[in-house]
Amino acid sequence: MAIRANPHLIDELEKYGAQDVVKCYHCGNCSATCPFSGDTFVFPRKSMRYLQLGLSSRLRGNLEPWLCYYCGECSEECPRGAEPGETMMSMRRWLTARYDFTGISGLFYRSPKAELLAITLVALLTGLGFTLFGMSQGSLAVYDGPGAFLPAEKVHVFDWIMAGVLVGLLGINCVRMWWFTVGSDKAVRVPPGQYLKQVLLVPWHFMTQRRYSQCDRKRPWAVHLVLMLSYLTMLVLIMFFLHRLQHGPAIDWTVHALGYAAALGLLGTTLFALRGRGLRNETHYKHSHETDWIFLILLFVVTLTGITQHILHRGGLETAANVIYIVHMMGVVPMLVLEVPFSKWSHMAYRPLGMYFSTLREKALLAEEQDSRTRPEPVAQTA
Amino acid sequence: MPSFASPKKIGVFFTHANTGRLDGLDLEKVMTFALELPEVTVVEDLGPIRRPDPHKLAEWIKDLGLTDVVIAGDTPGYHKPVFTRAMALAGGEADAVRLASFGEAGAATDQVESTAKAAVACAVHDVPFGLAVTPVRVPVHPDTLVIGAGVAGIETALRIADAGHHVHLVERAATIGGHMAMFDKTFPTLDCAACILTPKMVAVGQHENIDILNCSEVQAVGGSPGEYKVRVLRRARRVDPEACVACHACRDVCPTRVPSEFDEGIVERKAIYMAFPQAIPNAYVIDGDNCLWVKSEGEKCGACVKKCPKDAIHLDEEPRSVELTVGNIVVATGFDTFDATLIERYGYGRLPNVLTALEFERLTNASGPTGGRIVTRTVRRKRKTKQEEWIFDTDAPAPRSVAIIHCVGSRDQNHNAYCSRVCCMYSLKFAHLVKEKLPDAECYQFYIDMRAFGKGYEEFFERIKDEGVFVVRGRTAQIQRGDDGMVIRGEDIVHDRIREFPVDMVLLAVGLEPAKGTRHLAKVLDIQPGCDGWFTELNYNTDPTATNRGGIHVAGVCQGPKDIPDTVAQASAVAARVLGSIISGSIRVDRDTVSPAEAAAQASAIASANAQEASWPSEPTPT
Amino acid sequence: MSKESRIGVYICNCGTNIAKVVDAERVRDMVADLPGVACARTYKYMCSNPGQDMITQDIKENNLDRVVVAACSPRMHEPTFQKALEAAGLNPFLLEMANIREQCSWVHDDPGLATNKAADLTHAAVRRVARHQPLEKQEAPYTPVTLVLGGGIAGLTVAVELAEAGQRVHLVEREGRLGGNVGRVDLTAPYLDSARDILAEKIVQAETNPRIEVHLRATITDLQGFVGNFTATLSHTHEPDQEIPVGAVVVCTGYHEFDATRVERLGFGKYRDVITSFELEARLRKGRLETSDGRTPRYVSIVHCVGSRNPKYHAYCSRVCCMTALKYGHEIKSALPDAMVTDLYVDMLSFGKGGEDLYRRTSELKTMFLMFEKGDYPVVRKAEPDDDCGLLVEVQERLSGEAIDVPADLVVLMVGMQARGDSDQVARTVGISQDSHGWFIESHPKLAPVSTATEGVFIAGCCSSPKDIPDSVAQAQAAAAMVLGYIAQGKVQVDARYAQVDTDLCSGCRMCNELCPYTAITYDPDENRSSIQSAECKACGTCVAACPSGAITARHFTDEQILEQIEGVLAWSSSQP
Amino acid sequence: MEFEPTIVGFLCNWCSYTGADLAGTARIKHRPNLRVIRVMCSGRVDPTFVLQAFSAGADGVMICGCHPGDCHYLEGNDKAFRRFQLLKRLVAAYGIEEQRLRLEWVSASEGERFARLVDTMTAELRELGPLVRPPDLAGAPNPCPEVPREVAHG
Questions:
Q1: What is the ipTM of this complex?
Q2: Is C565 on the interface with D (CB under 8 A)?
Q3: Is A3 among the domain residues?
Q4: Which residues of D have a CB under 8 Å from any CB of B?
């Protein structure tokens, strides 16, 4: 059964940041340039083709955008300036929107104004909430200990509730991702045993960004790894060692050393990325979607306020520390609530899952091929 | 159709397409000029619009009561369909939409404004631009200068000389023949290039009406159409071609070896050399940059002089200039090939068995270093210096697999965005030669679009496939050193997979670029090189050989990539122009100086004359 | 022949073209001892300057009076070697060539048998050349009037070009108007210039130039004579036949478009909204780009290669359709800004100047390009009632590997070019040949792309193969150059090969009179003898073979020359001892 | 060793000789048994030539001209065809098998056809074996004056 071509898909993807896809004349240069493009997954050309023809069903079940790390070589070598790397990037945004069952993601990507509005709203609510909560708890002049404006233990409860909600939302989206890319495809039968056998791939890729390191260019990987590990460190420190971080004024070097390193890592990499996007000095920084800016600026603000708040606290300026703490939370909450399930942050889940699912598909296809090979050869067809 | 019955209301709309042709044009002045033309009621600058709405335009046309519309700009044709439709929607005459193209006349920069005005005036009066510009005719000198003696220059020179007129044939190299002399076979008939070209070269060499100025370059051009004064620099040949009998005695004693340009560097020649045995003039020449005697200013060597039995060698010869007076100048400077080292991932220059097209032409040529055997390059230690060098040895192993990569440097905005037009076919020819000489070798073509458009080309493509050549749709991304030879990687699009396999030899179908020095020559001749560096013809459709200067013509590849049949046809076409001017005794100086007022008057006169007897096509009857 | 002749035999290796299969040295050794052979040599490239010099040198030094060159086809290099003989002061007709490349080394694999054959052919040439006679070429005046067949862009260009050089031209057009197929086009690719302006300029120039006589609704029915001295008979629809003397004929009869009904799956003739490219041109020109029921199409689909690149119809590529289709991409988008254009192609042949640029810009207009396999045409079918389009075009898309349904309200078929139905009649009348597709054959695609086998008859434009406007114009100008070459010289050389009647032997039976297709033979009743006008004789030799009294000789193809040749080819290889 | 027949071919200059050249440029391989003699037109082929060829040792003779209607000289091939009808009878009268004499139309574009004709004729003559030459063949006078039109059509 033939699939109906849809000329409007490109228009839709353009809102997600795709540009110049129409210029592609399918020479195949990009696919051959990409070190990840192989027998089972040939990309980015094929994905570009689905997009050009508007085959949204094919595109929705496509894992290939998650296999691309946007080193930018394909775009640089493209003879038509069709920006395959950026197209893959925009497809990741589009896929994120498809996986998200609430529709919020699509709204944010298509309309940065809506995202900004949502961020402002959440930030204001957070600010208001924490101020009211703080006033009910103690004095603005006390940072920690008895009478603290925002007692760490209580804030921590809030942290865990938020984390639970976010994991739940993201979890549902991940299941949807599985359904679109593996579950609903009748051509691929993945035996349950395989799921278990390959499951370690998820933490492995999450932690090491192993695949990213296989790109010909190493610097983007290094920057990304530092950012990711810094963030992860900070997350672990906050989720599990918050009391040791927050209590002062003494410095607890066992956690603070890690915390400082992570803060520096975050600060350095976000600055690096912001500068790169501003100057467009690397191929993957050449085109920036509004959501890229929003995310980076949020992260930068959060890092900066986090550091400031810490310095103020250790410096004994507790009132100022509390004010900045609220500002910090006004960045942290919208960043986590909106970015993690609905926007750029979600890729920390989709990417490793992409690796995992693609391996499953690959193994299943391979098994099928071997299976068919043991069967008698069909009569050779002449071309 | 012009008519006196009802008064016309003409709207002139200006558009921009950012082609660069309007640079330096003061549009205001053209618009003011347009508004003063009779019957013009509206002049609008639409700006760089992308897609006007036909319904809005229709309303506009209706409101203004326009009967005729003129679209003016650098490429006004892009908006003709929408204006035509708008006209039809408004109930007007669809045929009353006309174009005034500023690009058409290929005018020099200082002429842009007057050409634009004239074009608008012509369109307003519904008179083709070419008719309104009265050609000024001046007497013409019967001699002709042909610059470049490749197949195009040779063909033009022969056509003119055979008709009994004198031709000066200027060639930068020591021999005539150009690139075609280097080829082995020609597509699609596979007749040997030498068999076609050498008789023509011999005919040129023997022709009483042609004088060959080899080792020469045009330095300056003065005078005016009809009588150009040309100064030609004749570099020192240092061997008298009249006296030399090509006995090779000098070559045998010459101590200096350098890579042979004619053989694309795959073999060496001496400092005193003949590019190839059939060279015309059939005489030796000394390469002053490498000759020991010349370099040492007479201190060293000089062995050849002693050996020469005819006293033909004059090592102290100095370059000199000659002055020529000619009526017509034909530019046939041809092309150079794309520098494949610019695409690093193909490894040209690093990997010894990645060859360019011309290198392969020489390798497979019967008079090449291996007598036409296709072998891989192997390493050898130089006897004296013990340095390693890569050479083609007749006894070296033949490649077991050969990959041919199309569009190297062509159709690529990082290099040359245009298509070089000949590479597909010569690549197919290479595949055939590989299969013919090495039936067991595997041969792969990596292509994007197979452009087999000429007579017998498509059939040739089919034949190549029947011969067992694998054609892979997809561009190769890279060639890397492998364990045993090289590994090539490319996408096989139709079969949806990445192909990565070892090959012994890779042929790069390098594209064509304007010959080195083309821009300089354009300046000397005061004619226009286009955006890609190829010379711009006066009119793409109707004047493919004329330039913006009267009496200066372009022929062959220097106007744009072409295969041999098209080059020969175009070269003959130039001869028509030259012979026509000589026979009629005068030459058109047209479009060098266009007076808008005159053009407008002329157009108006033609228009009213034509009002009685309509003579150009309106709605045709299909046959 | 009383005196033993001194023949030089030259065997060419043609690089390895001949020597790879034929043992040239052995052939040389075999023929060296034949009677009359004074010297025999081999050389790498006989046609090269040194090769030719070797022959002229030998003629002078060894006193040769006849030469045999065993090399490529005489159709290729006979003139070259004839010139070499002339350079040495020998009559060019004292040359004979043995074709040991095209008809030997290139078609045989067995070196032994091929060498034998080459030796036989060379032997025959030696035997034949011994009987050659020096012949002198004759000169004839050249009538500086040119007949141009076809009033399309090529014919108009030839006519205007010649007239501007001050020459008289008869421009003959079958239809009632000038302009040909370009007259059916609105804008030209790649710059979207106005075809109407291009044509109008040429037509006005042709019609207003007093040196051009335009014959509309006229055809050529007969062409007699020879180069420089033709008499053409023109037949007009409403007027009596007209005979005009001309020096040369340029055939620019153009092409006809492919009949798209032949490709059934495209639905042309079945669905009213499947139209040809020419119909689209007409609609664009009228500003009414609508479907058959007057709706504004939302989807327009363009199908390439209709009738081209398919052995079932025409194996060749029609060369202009891709560029035209890209042009349509722009035109449709301009007229219908909201329409979506799909372009179904095989390979995109946007090869000319500005071509690749047009392709890129058409892509940027969001034209959807779909690639199908050569010969595997898309299938056009009616859309379902709930579809938002009238037709669906199903294509096996190669770049995605998917079967795709393309929505279409209007399907435009890029019909290819084919030889005109009347081209065989034209070919017969003017004496030129056609290839298997019906296109006229040029005498050599690279050496002489506009000349034909008949001297003084030229071809230009699409009648020899598909071409775009600039290439047609270049060819037309090239043909004009050939004609101007004659005019500049003012005379032509008549072939020295013609038939002669020995009046002593002629019995006046008049058998030959009827046979001659050129009426070159006249009978003198007073003398009761026939005689031949040498300038009109084209040397076919039919009369020679027929003459019962052996009174007619074909110069350079005499009975004895051919009989010697027969004995020569058989002397070594006849099966009978 | 297998018998290699010798065939003499009379090819017209415009179509068949060009077609044979095309077989060459297209490298269409065929048997090397044909010895080509170029004539301007198939109409030039005098019956004497054919008889002389058989007499001098040919095992077969092939005359090739342009397809009917394509003759460069308008109707030379037509003349050849008429002459051939009589020639066939004459050759038969000498006891020469009819397969040994052929008249074929080969156009300038039929390199392939030319090659196949040579191959088939060679194969047929191999079957037949060498021509046993009739003693009275040699030195026969011009045996075949032009046939009057009525005879040819009748």
A1: 0.88
A2: yes
A3: no
A4: 25-27
